[in-house]
Structure formats: C-alpha cells, structure tokens
C-alpha cells in the first residue's frame, strides 16, 4: 500500500504503509540479550528486507515502513544503556548489525548506522547530565535520529534569544531526516568560531525538507536537502556548553575525546560498504549457480559455469579479499570498543584520552575505509564478469549493490585516507581531528 504524505510545503511524498510490518512488532516482544542474539535479530531483519529489496529500490519511496521495521526489531536500541531499556552492547556489535542489514539493503544499513552515531552524540560532546537525559528520551521512546550536519556546506548560524539558541541555515544533505523523530543540528555561535550540537524535534515547523533525494544509489536513505528556519532549542540542550556563561566547556569539547564522533562514523561507513559487498557476492553466487551458462568458445569447454576456471578463480579471489576486509573491520571495531570502554564516564576519565591514542584509532579506521572502499567497488562491479550479460537486466537487481556503494564512497575522497596513512607509516604522524578524520 502506498500513502502520500502531505508536507508543510504541499509536496506529496509516497511511502509504504508501515503497517505492512505490524506482525513483527508482535513477534519481537523483547530485545536480545547478547551479541549472538543481536546478530540473529539483524539477520532476521535482513531476510525480511531482502525479499523485495530491488522492488523497493526502484520505487524509491520514503522509508517510513522500513524504519518502523528497525524499531520493531529493537535494532535502534542496540547501543543504548540497559537501565533505560537499551541493549547495552559495544560499538563492535553495532557495526556488525549495520553490516548484516546492509547485506540485504544498503539504504537501511546506512540509516541504521547514521542513527546509531547520532543517537550517541551526547555521550561524546555532551555533559554527563545531558547524555543521561537524551539517552533516556531516545531509548524509552524508541526514537529514530537524523542529522542536519554536512560540513561541506556553510555552517548553520546560531543566535541567542533569552534562554534559547536559534539555528538558521541550509544543508544539501540530511540523511534520514524526513523519517526521523529527532534531528541533530550543528552550527557556529554568533561572534565566535565555536560549534554547538543540539537535538530538535523533527516535527518543528522550521525544519523544512526539500524531498529531493533521487540519486543512483542508496535511494531509500532520504538524504536530500533541508532548510533550517529559526529552529529554537533551550540553552540547556546545547551539548557541552555552559548555558549560564554561554561558552563551550573546555573539559568536554576541547579534549581528544570530544572529537571521537568522526572516526566512529567513518567506521560506520566501512561496515555498510562491507555489508553491501558481501550482499553482492552472495546475490551473484546464487545467480551463477542457477542461471549463468558456461562459455562454449574457450577451447576448454565446460558443461557448467561453476566448472569454469576464470569463474572459480574470480569468486575465490573476491571471497579471500572480503574475508580479509571482515577481519580488519572487526579488529577496528574492537579498537573502538577499547577507547570507549576505557575513557567513557566522568570528565576526569574522558580527559585521559591522549591525542596520540585518538590518532592511532583514526588510522585503524582509515585503514578499514581504504580496504572496504577498494574491495567493495571491485567486488560489486566485478560480479557482472562472472554472472554474464543477462545479469545486467534491471529485473535481476544486481546493479543496486554497485550503485549503492559507488554513491557513498564519494562521501569523502579515499585518496586522502591513503595519504594520511602514508604519513603515519613514513613519518609516524597521527592526523589532526577534522570533520572527516
């Protein structure tokens, strides 16, 4: 069933009725308790999404129903504190869950990944009180979080009006915002160079979506542009700021811990790239076994495509490189765990994280970004060589894996990650924190 959403500007936005997944809300009456349970739940979600992924990709409808499925499954809560009803899992489990969902549907893997990052924003750049309050709100309400934070655009302008701060501006990209419950806003406070993060209800009349996401890949991510028009939030919600002094707290924001969101989300990217590539290999494998015909003019003719030397060699090579990429991604996830487990907590504990430790984590993440980008692009394009000309038919749907990974691997040039790693290898330099490192 298709429903048209009448937005404030009169735009008609079709989406599938979220009730198509109501049965799973009744099926999943509790959240998993351990890593194995969470990965099984992610697999169940992936199996549901895989059944009609290519159809939904072509229809390009707003993913309200699919986000409802993520909510029913409890996957939005995997990292949340147990005392509020969350899963209490480390980032390594979150990353594997993202990867598993992306094997079936890259768009939903991406949405889950961005949500997990934005839902933990206050844990990194907020005070302990803010983190507690916001985590409670998100987990208890099972909220999905979007973010209007695109560093390539001009910063949102922030002014002060009494006990509130007011955001104004425009962002070309805003992943998941249209289907979110809360939106993370970020901008620069007037008269300073200091940035402020804050959460706002997505229903705020000043958050105006253009509904213009119609790209070649990741079509169900609602990553279009958004106008932020006089969106006011309380000064108390300015993450990591002293509302009385109207100044950033240096013990929260001006320490290496305060920049951990960047390597954390870069590893989110790598994991949904990896999931997409794994999904492509599995999809292509099934196609080759069932439908690909052996080449009859090679001089060493085989009866079945699965006996062809070049087909076996290609699949074997892809398998090996993806297995290595999985091992690297898992190792990097454990490095993220180690940093958060060691330094999360009170401000004195956060302050112990050194720039060197933060930088070495960034290089684990950069290494994973390079490998998953290179391998993902090679696999998702290369599977056509071993599935045959008929696999390019749109009804087959094999093309969506390449379109998805090609779209997001342009997010920030991987060449700069190679250069960064080169300086680490040759000069033992760790990178300065940036919006992309």
Question: Secondary-structure map with pairings?
Answer:
Elements: E1 2-6, E2 12-16, H1 22-27, H2 35-50, H3 53-59, H4 64-73, H5 91-104, H6 106-119, H7 121-125, H8 128-141, E3 145-148, E4 156-161, E5 164-171, E6 182-189, E7 195-201, E8 207-209, E9 226-234, E10 241-242, E11 247-248, H9 250-253, H10 261-290, H11 309-343, H12 347-350, H13 355-382, H14 399-408, H15 414-427
Parallel strand pairs: 3-6, 4-6
Antiparallel strand pairs: 1-2, 4-5, 5-9, 6-7, 8-9, 10-11
Helix pairs in contact: 2-4, 2-5, 5-6, 5-10, 5-11, 6-10, 10-11, 10-13, 10-14, 11-13, 13-14, 13-15
CATH level 3 topology of the largest domain: Butyryl-CoA Dehydrogenase, subunit A, domain 3
List the helices and strands in order. Answer: EEHHHHHHHHEEEEEEEEEHHHHHHH
- Full CATH superfamily name of the largest domain: Butyryl-CoA Dehydrogenase, subunit A, domain 3
Major β-sheet annotation = 7 strands, mixed
Beta content comes to 5-15%
Outline type: globular
Question: What does the average pLDDT come to?
Answer: 95
- Poorly predicted parts: 6-10
The domain count comes to: 3
Q: Which radius of gyration do the C-alpha atoms yield? A: 22 Å
SS-based class: alpha+beta
At the first level of CATH, the class of the largest domain is: Mainly Alpha
The total beta strand count reads: 11
Distance between the termini: 42 Å
Put simply, the count of helices is: 15
| Overall CATH architecture of the largest domain | Up-down Bundle
Percent of residues in helices: 40-55%
Protein name: Acyl-CoA dehydrogenase/oxidase
GO molecular function: 3-methylbutanoyl-CoA dehydrogenase activity; flavin adenine dinucleotide binding
Keywords: Flavoprotein, Oxidoreductase
Domain Acyl-CoA dehydrogenase/oxidase N-terminal: 49-139
């Amino acid at each position: 069933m298709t429903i048209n959403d009448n937005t404030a500007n009169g735009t008609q936005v079709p989406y599938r009725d979220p009730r198509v997944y109501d049965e799973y809300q009744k099926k999943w009456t509790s959240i998993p308790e351990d890593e194995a349970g969470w990965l099984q739940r992610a697999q169940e979600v992936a199996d549901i999404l895989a059944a009609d992924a290519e159809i939904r990709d072509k229809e390009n409808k707003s993913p309200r129903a699919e986000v409802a499925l993520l909510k029913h499954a409890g996957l939005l809560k995997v990292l949340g504190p147990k005392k509020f009803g969350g899963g209490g899992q480390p980032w390594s489990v979150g990353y594997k869950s993202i990867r598993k969902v992306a094997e079936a549907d890259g768009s939903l893997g991406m949405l889950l990944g961005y949500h997990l990052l934005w839902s933990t924003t206050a844990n990194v750049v907020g005070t302990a009180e803010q983190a507690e309050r916001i985590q409670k709100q998100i987990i208890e309400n099972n909220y999905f979080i979007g973010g209007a934070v695109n560093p390539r655009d001009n910063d949102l302008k922030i002014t002060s009006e009494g006990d509130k701060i007011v955001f104004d501006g425009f962002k070309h990209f805003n992943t998941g915002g249209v289907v979110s419950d809360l939106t993370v806003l970020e901008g620069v406070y007037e008269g300073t160079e200091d940035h402020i993060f804050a959460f706002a209800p997505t229903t705020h009349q000043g958050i105006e979506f253009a509904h213009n996401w119609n790209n070649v890949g990741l079509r169900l991510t609602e990553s279009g542009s958004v106008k932020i028009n006089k969106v006011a939030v309380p000064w108390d919600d300015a993450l990591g700021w002293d509302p009385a002094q109207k100044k950033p707290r240096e013990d929260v924001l001006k320490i290496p811990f305060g920049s951990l969101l960047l390597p954390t989300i870069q590893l989110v990217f790598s994991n949904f790239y990896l999931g997409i590539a794994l999904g492509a290999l599995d999809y292509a494998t099934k196609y080759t076994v069932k439908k690909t015909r052996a080449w009859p003019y090679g001089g060493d003719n085989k009866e079945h495509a699965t006996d062809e030397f070049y087909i076996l060699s290609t699949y074997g090579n892809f398998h090996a490189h993806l297995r290595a990429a999985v091992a690297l991604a898992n190792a990097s996830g454990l490095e993220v765990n180690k940093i958060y487990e060691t330094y999360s907590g009170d401000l004195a504990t956060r302050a112990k994280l050194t720039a060197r430790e933060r930088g070495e984590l960034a290089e684990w993440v950069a290494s994973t970004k390079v490998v998953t980008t290179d391998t993902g692009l090679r696999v998702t394009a290369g599977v056509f060589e071993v599935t045959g000309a008929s696999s390019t038919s749109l009804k087959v749907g094999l093309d969506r894996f390449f379109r998805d990974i090609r779209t997001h691997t342009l997010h920030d040039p991987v060449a700069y990650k190679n250069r960064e790693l080169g300086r680490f290898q040759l000069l033992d330099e760790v990178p300065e924190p940036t919006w992309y490192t």
